[in-house]
Amino acid sequence: MPKFHIGKRGNTAACHAKGKCPLGGDESHGKTREEVQTIIDSYYETEAALRRHQELPESTNAFESAGRLKAYREKQEYLAQKINGIEERNRSIFYSSHGTAEQIEAAIASNPERIANEKAYLANREMVLADRDAYKEKALAEIQQNNPFGERLTISPAGKLFVKDIQKDEWPAYNKIKDKLKEIKEEEQKYIDASYAYAPKDRPFTDNEIKEMQEDLEKLKQQPERFDTTKDREEYEKVSAEIKRYEQLHKEQLFEERTGHKLSELNAIPRTETSDKVRIDEKGHFTNVYAKSDGEVYKVLKTGHEEGAYGGIGRSYLEVETLNGDKKELSMTTTWNWRMTRTHDAYNSLPHIYTVDDNKGILTDETVHFSKIMIDSSD
Known about the structure:
By secondary structure, this protein is α+β, with helices and mostly antiparallel strands. It contains 7 helices and 17 strands. It has helices at residues 33-52, 62-91, 101-145, 171-195, 207-221, 230-259, 343-348; strands at 4-6, 12-14, 29-30, 153-155, 161-163, 267-268, 274-275, 279-280, 289-293, 296-306, 315-321, 327-331, 333-336, 352-355, 362-363, 368-369, 373-376. The strands form 6 sheets. Strands 6-14-9-10-11-12 form a 6-stranded antiparallel sheet, with no helix packed on it. A 3-stranded antiparallel sheet has the order 2-1-3. Strands 4-5 form a two-stranded antiparallel sheet. It starts with a strand and ends with a strand.
């Protein structure tokens, strides 16, 4: 069956590629020149709308979606190159760890205020800590004054209590002093916390830091301006989202236009790999069987088995047709190694088979077996 695509000059042209076409996939191909022309017209319409930042109406068919997909992919590639080019340029420009020229100027200008705030804070903290020391000295003096142990009592600088040769009946007095020391320590912590209450948000810069910032500022003033890629990155994300949307829409529309069915109507065959719902035409080709492999949907024409392959185990395969009419073969045979993958993953890497309910052709007399072969290549 002849196939057409968008030629190198941007016009409709016959596609003679035997395998993968270098000029694009399904989004650049059609069964007729009219289909490809619709792709081209949609592409130019979308490209113009993107350039002018205009809204596009909803796509009505697979070939309009294909044209939009092509335009969005080109836009994505353009934005990626633009962003990478700007980032490469920005990397060649001197960068200061202290920030931009504006940020450095603001930091230097704020330093006198930072110094004044730091001095005020330290003076206040010194007063609070002096009050703490006075409180602690007075509280400890009261303990010593009312001390029932005399010279046997020792209180360490850390507030630890020790009584030499303490007697059993002296423990209540010991615990009373111990509780008082705990109370002193808690009160002391309140003074410490209060001493930090007015700590400035920003510390002052040292002379060396100011000198370094001034040197960086001079270098930055001699450098060209950095370009911001934020808006380009936001646009790239929007374009990427549209690509994802149109990829799915194109697949759904193309499947429906080529088969008369929706992708949602596909019914997976049982795990037994057999189906009694297969229909065939007068040539013996399946009319209602499809396969999904690597994100693509194919029309399955027939199954095949090659005897003697893989050391006599044999090879199972499918004869399929792309939605644009290209015939190819999908292997239903794979190898697996327990060191590299699980059998479940190996099995799922093979094409998944589906049927749809329709009245084309006639039901096969016997159940059709879509055999999958997994060959254990483990040592």
